[in-house]
Amino acid sequence: MENFTFDGASRVIFGKGAEKNLTSEIKRLGGKKVFLHYGMGSIKKSGLYDKVIKLLKDGGFEVIEQGGVKPNPVISHVREGIKICRNAKADIILAIGGGSVIDSAKAIAVGVPYSGDVWDFAESKAVPQTALPIGVILTIPAAGSETSRYSVVTNEDGMWKRDVVNENNDLIRPKFAILNPEFTLNLPPFETACGVVDILAHVMERYFSRTTNVDLSDKLCEAVMKSVIKNGPVVFKEPGNYDARAEIMWAGSVAHNDLIGMGRGWDFVSHRVGMELSAMYDIAHGESLTIAFPAWMKYMYKLYPVIFAKFAVKVFNIDNDFDSIEKTAFAGIKAVESFYKGLNMPISLTEAKVPLDKFEVLAEKCDKIGNIKKIDKKDVLEILKLAT
Amino acid sequence: MENFTFDGASRVIFGKGAEKNLTSEIKRLGGKKVFLHYGMGSIKKSGLYDKVIKLLKDGGFEVIEQGGVKPNPVISHVREGIKICRNAKADIILAIGGGSVIDSAKAIAVGVPYSGDVWDFAESKAVPQTALPIGVILTIPAAGSETSRYSVVTNEDGMWKRDVVNENNDLIRPKFAILNPEFTLNLPPFETACGVVDILAHVMERYFSRTTNVDLSDKLCEAVMKSVIKNGPVVFKEPGNYDARAEIMWAGSVAHNDLIGMGRGWDFVSHRVGMELSAMYDIAHGESLTIAFPAWMKYMYKLYPVIFAKFAVKVFNIDNDFDSIEKTAFAGIKAVESFYKGLNMPISLTEAKVPLDKFEVLAEKCDKIGNIKKIDKKDVLEILKLAT
Predict the structure, then answer these.
(1) Are residues A167 and A213 in the same domain?
(2) A4/B15 CB distance under 8 A
(3) Phi/psi of residue A106, each to 5°?
(4) Per-residue pLDDT of chain A (388 residues; tens, 9 = 90+)
(5) Which residues of A touch B230 (CB under 8 A)?
(6) Tell me, what CATH number does A93's domain have?
């Protein structure tokens, strides 16, 4: 096991009616002027927006707002948000939505008190020293951003999709996250499936590691993956199933709040390739993952068959072929593909109707990343070929 | 799944050399006068005391101290600690040791700013409003107190062993916990075994629940139990095995920081019976658990065989006897007993040389507790009979 620091600082308030704790949580953080950040208006249709506004007004808070966060949130919109926050002297950010909204809120949170441009943090030209506190009302279980230290935003100038904060990123972990599974009951099947595969990916990325002697975190990862594999198809087929929605919602946070992956190397190559794919072609983050992950696995399992065989046996209950560890490993990859297909997700670029013309550009963006193997452009090109 | 709030506020710094972060952590919390709290001197023998004193002096902190915390810490010693802290105007408590020391430190932390007597909190006559911040250097993985909201102290006036803080107990969750597995390499086998069974008990208490639709937390609990069952015998037989020590140390925190048991009822009856046993007869907390737990299981499995059969199959890989769920369940209880025996722990009062004369008094102390079944005195007497 490697040394680690775990700082699980987000308070999660979970369950039916959890939003009734909203104003007490904002008060706990000393917030008075709330910057409400949200997406393309689904919270207005669902009535959640009105509910929150009423709670905030009744609580005596001043509300400033910026909606319009798009999937794959962009830095120009973040910069606008920073200006609005500064002008209004907002002292807390309330993000209502899924990962895009929360990630955007996080970038705004570090951008407001910083005199330079917020993208400096993404390029490691500066390290944030302080941030506005962030609260979340989650409506899409997927990114795990509600309790994580990560924020991914696209810079339209070159279509780079990057972590906005590379260092000192505990600053952007939300202070509280309100998770009411009822808010997810009307999520359409495609968004639901995208969330499920994102959650699973977060755990797979922690699991595929060359660090040895990580028995507990291995088993914790297996637990979360097995639960997602069990409940994912249920929420896809029975959108109104509260119990399964609750499992997936909680899994989304547990998958990415870091606890289950402590003491081991993580490998985010597939996520990174997927991120760049979705930034370049505007396909959903979930789709980019179901395309990139099996391809990455097919490229890697020959180098490290044991890691992938363990995954096959322990997570997908594949019968271990002791005569050929590679066969066992490959059966696990096929099981992942079947799982994705069951959620009606594409498992190739062709299926997702992505043109196959920019492999070189994409490979350039993903050069020299990875943990179980540091990949270079050549590797990325091979992985992309396996993704066609 | 039931509604819940999870507030994982302890920062865990884990691994070799983790203690080098001590002074920066104290500074982060604004501490200047450190109240050092420890046990019966093992940290002086091991050299940890000198190391910590040097770190604190070099860091420019004022140090006040109180050692002498005994296993099953007592309220009179806590009251003394409160006086020392007040007189010295200590602003942070650093507990170095295992669960007893940390629990004692927590009681002091809420006692210092309170004008009444600290036992008021145990009797729910008052609710703590504030507390001194607590930091921990853990030397015995067992109680999970280093990241938990719980503090159990014995009141010698009647030998009551109770949670000191019943409400608002997030106040006493340590702000940071330094976990260096190297500090546990010299733990003797008996203390090691007591720790292992305590950790396992914390998970079992969360697992044995009648709450349904808790798939993820079921699987997380199973993961931790399986890892403890795998690594417990290793640390018992190979005290110097760093890797296994690391697994057990991290498992101790994960078992009791609440995350794995969210959204479900917990049943702490065996722990409570064990606690009262250890308070009355001064047997080790671990011994009290290995006596009380199988007895409680033997009493309960006939009422709720499915819960215990699930445990047998999922945690101990017992072959499921579909013709008799009770047989499967019972095989799980025998497996727990075998596990305890493998760690050389007693599984009956007779083995532990506990006199069988005070069952009535003990039953009185454990009346009307429990979750999967609210037990009364009559039940406790039956359980104690099964423990002889």
Answers:
(1) no
(2) yes
(3) -65, -40
(4) 788 888 877 999 999 999 999 999 999 999 999 999 999 989 999 999 999 999 999 999 999 999 999 988 999 999 999 999 999 999 999 999 999 999 999 999 999 999 999 999 999 999 999 999 999 999 999 999 999 999 999 998 877 788 999 888 999 999 999 999 999 999 999 999 999 999 999 999 999 999 999 999 999 999 999 999 999 999 999 999 999 999 999 999 999 988 999 999 988 888 888 888 888 887 999 999 999 999 999 999 999 999 999 999 999 999 999 999 999 999 999 999 999 999 999 999 999 999 888 899 888 888 788 888 888 999 999 999 999 9
(5) 215
(6) 3.40.50.1970
B220 to A224: CB separation less than 8 angstroms, yes or no: yes
- In this structure, the answer to whether residues A36 and A149 fall within a common structural domain is yes
Residue ranges of chain B whose CB lies within 8 Å of a chain A CB = 1-18, 21, 213, 215-217, 219-220, 222-224, 226-227, 230-231, 243, 246-247, 250-251, 254, 257, 259, 262-263
- Rounded to a whole number, what is the distance in Å from the CA of B109 to chain A's nearest CA? 21
Asked whether residue B284 falls in the same domain as residue B301, the answer is yes
Rounded distance between C-alpha atoms, residue A116 and residue A118, angstroms: 6
Identify the three-state secondary structure at position A99: helix
Which residue bears the tokens 């025998």? B334
Interface contact flag, A219 B226, Cβ < 8 Å? yes
pLDDT of res. B261: 92
Expressed as residue numbers, the domain containing A253 is: 192-386
Which of A162, A184, A206 terminates a domain? The answer is A184
* Same domain flag for A217 and A177: no
Most confident of A357-361, B306-310, B370-374: B306-310
Other beta carbons within 10 angstroms of residue A153's beta carbon come to 27
Clarify whether residues B289 and B199 are in a common domain: yes
**Could you tell me if residue B357 is inside a domain?**
yes
Report the domain count for chain A. Answer: 2
DSSP state of A194: H
CATH number of the domain encompassing residue B341 = 1.20.1090.10
Evaluate if pTM is beyond 0.90.
yes
Cα(A44)–Cα(B197) distance, integer angstroms: 52
Instruction: Name which of A6, A222, A230 is nearest B12 (Cβ-Cβ).
Output: A6
Whose CA is closest to B138, among B187, B181, B186, B197? B181
In a domain, A313, yes or no: yes
Q: Is residue B1 part of a domain?
A: no
Q: Tell whether A27 is covered by a domain.
A: yes
Strands B152-155 and A4-7 turn out to be: unpaired
Nearest to A247 by CA among A198, A304, A302, A199: A199
Q: Do B247 and A13 count as a contact with CB atoms less than 8 A apart?
A: no
Candidate from A18, A220, A257 with C-beta closest to B3: A18
C-alpha A85/C-alpha A75 separation (Å) is: 15
The reply to whether A232 and A347 lie within a common domain is: yes
Among B184, B215, B245, which residue terminates a domain?
Answer: B184
